[in-house]
Amino acid sequence: MISMKARIFTLLVAVLGVFAFGCKPNDLTLSSPDGGVAIKLTNNEGKLRYEVLSKDQNLIEPSEISLFPDQQATIINSRTSSNNSSWEPVWGQFSKVQDHYNELVLDVDYEGVAAQLFVRVYNNGIGFRYTLPNAEEAQEVTFLCQYQLIPEAAIYSPSGERVPLGPVKLSDLGNEEEVRLKIPLVVEKAGTPYLSLLESDLYSATAFKTMKVRYDDVYGALVSENKAQLGGDENTTPWRVILINEKLGDLVTNQVPLNLATPLQLEDPSWIKPGKTLWDWRVHGFTAEDGFTYGINTESYKRFIDFAAEKDIEYFLIDDAWYTKVTPGHFELSDKLDLQEVIDYAAEKDVELLLYYDRRHGEYGDDKLFEYYASLDMKGIKYGFMGSNEPFTRKAISQSAESKLLIDFHDGPVPMTGVARTMPNAITREFCHAQQDSRRAFTPETFIKMALINAIQGPLDMNNGNFDLTGINQGKREKGPRKTNSYMSTVVSEAARTLVIHSGLVCIPDAPEAYAAKADLFEFIQMQPVGKWDESKVLHAQMGDFITTARRAGEEWFVGSVYDERGGTLEIALDFLNDDQEYLVTFYEDTNETHGTTNPEAYQVRSGTVKKGDVIKAVMAPGGGHCMWIRPKE
């Protein structure tokens, strides 16, 4: 039997292994709970620097971090702690999130100004945050964080509605002109883990704007350098976040940014319901077989509501042009439809409504906007053209919550990573290229890049799920692609994309008749419990080439795969299934004749049984996809 003294000694050794302090008081090392990631902090000549190691590999060389870059830093005190807890999000990729980290807090004096630097090290990521705990009056700070990456590293970056940037070698960034980097950045270097550089909890750091990253020739490194006025109640920075994963796809399901965000700030979030929504905007001009042509009118909207009710789709989203003029607290309604009749009809059918607002039509009405939407019994607002406006975005999130409204930001929104934990009514955002808006930027390759880059910052509203691909390509819509026959995809790929892209609101953009005509394939979308996932995994991922995502709800699994313009085969090992359990599976597949350009609507649906350990060969056409719905066999 082990003695009590021996147990205490063993515990002390374990603790010292986590918090290894160098012989100098200004040299500190902090390791992750599993010991796989470590951060070293040094303070030489008044400059505080950090470096990041993974299994003794240098991922980030010594890099400066500061709140006052022009002033000398002196470490006054340091203390460490550990946390291993869990919490349950209102909605998300997981039903329970483990928050396991080791923390170092440094009391730092910047020539008479007292600051605190918080450093948290997780098994798969690191976070830095400063506070000014005693600053009563506001003073200007510059939150500086350098990233001295390995020169051979390749960088990927979002680029709004354009094709994501990359791969660009770090060593070439200094020679490139006008390279505009956005977060989240992805860093790729053969033989080392993947990194992502971003921020978290911008919503709560009210003095700050979105993190900007640039290449600095002087430092020879990537640098984020944000100025703000801190003091009084506004005394904290956002978290600077470095994600670390052996597999590229794991960056998308990494929970460190959510763990770093401020916990839930709503007393009762029970009214927040994630789900799927039909949407009218891209259907205008579509003519059904019975001769009916969709537009902005009451009958069109009743058709959407009927289909939503029939297929248990939670929401119907009405886009622009339902009003003609805005004044504070008042909308002049379009005479094209009877909005109240639509509202009453939706209530009768138990379908919730979401309503669009374009801020360019009257931003002076914002203070009363959300109250007005609530008075119409709307359940949410799709907000367009607010610009990269952080103060307004925070205000819109809080005001919409006060009126119990979901909010979906479009048109270049602020990437407030982690806000889904703090204010889960911020249900999704178009921090990507939404389908049909800009065909030059939407190809199978670009979709995969956005799924592996843009999606790291949080939920995306990408509007996947078109089924009438032939009609769209032929220009049989009022708002289809400007260039006909430029949309490369297959209907199975479209179904898979609704699963691959995580969102609290999955907006499917096609006509009810297009889905009804392929009801057996639409089943894969219909049965997804959007936003209510217990577990999510990215099984395969290669930048721009392919991705496979699996999500579990209870004992059911949904698996979606997408391939690039070349098409190909992925072997999907069903190792995630339970032992000693047989499962029914429905396969939704491209056929031998399917092609993303010439034959996009050919597909097949078949059934079978599977068990743990089986390997499924998912064969995908050029621009194609593959889906599986797996559930226990009774």
Automatic annotation (TrEMBL):
Residues 532-630 form the Glycosyl-hydrolase 97 C-terminal oligomerisation domain. Signal peptide: none annotated. This is Alpha-glucosidase. Gene3D superfamilies: 2.70.98.10, Aldolase class I (3.20.20.70). Residues 286-430 form the Glycosyl-hydrolase 97 catalytic domain. Residues 30-263 form the Glycosyl-hydrolase 97 N-terminal domain. Keywords: Calcium. GO terms for molecular function: carbohydrate binding. It comes from Marinoscillum furvescens DSM 4134. Its cofactor is Ca(2+). Monomer.
